[in-house]
Request: fold
Amino acid sequence: MTYKSEITNATVFMSVRTKVKQERISPAVLTQIREELQEISFPAICGSMDKLDIAISFMKSIGVDENMLLSDFIVQTLKMDRTFASNKAQQTLHCKHIQSLWITLALERNLRLHKSGKEPFDNVTSKFKEPLKQCHQTLLCISIKHLRKIQQDLFLELLLECIVLAIDIPQKDEEAYNPAKIRNQELMSLNHSTCLEENCLRCSFADALEAFLYDFPYEDPAPKYDWLKPIINELNAKSDDTLQGCHSVETWKFVLTRSLNC
Reply:
């Protein structure tokens, strides 16, 4: 059966989570899936993402048992081909893992696109692709210089989740996610008028990341990496050239370049 999917974005995932609670893929399973993806062609990864886009579109509309195997939902409910980029994902993941799997595939796709000199965030609004100034690059270098390779990889995944699931929200839905309001709930801070006006775009990127962790879009608790809080504090240093939400995509690319050079 042939379907046409919509663009999968933060708003779509919000709708999915109201129907089907989402959990992160366990670290052990995720490691196996990533190892398999290394051997998969780029077209196969994109094809799997297209299939997930269709499944996500239906899931947000009709809902489904969160513990149903994702492959069964695709085959039995949607009458689509079972072929998946990862055998491990096909055999073990449930509908409650669809958001995490989509992020995993998106990360692999973006890595390959960036390495080949192509734009990895083609579906992200251009306003979040503002170039980094030299002061931003210096700040990022200082903030992540002590991270080991595995920590930089974890940071990349977290940044991607933050961009896709929280920052890049279509204009009409921006009020649904406001980093300042969320951060105020946690920190009782009252000094975020800029963020209240323009939400993620001109908000401190550190505030957006901290708000994302506070209002984590999974049933699992947010990761509590001991190296993450110092980075957020460093990035949130007050200055006239604060790293903002509009720099999100270029921040991800910068961290990736540093990771590849380790």
Notes: The radius of gyration is 18 Å. The chain has a mean pLDDT of 85. The chain is about 55% helix and 0% strand.
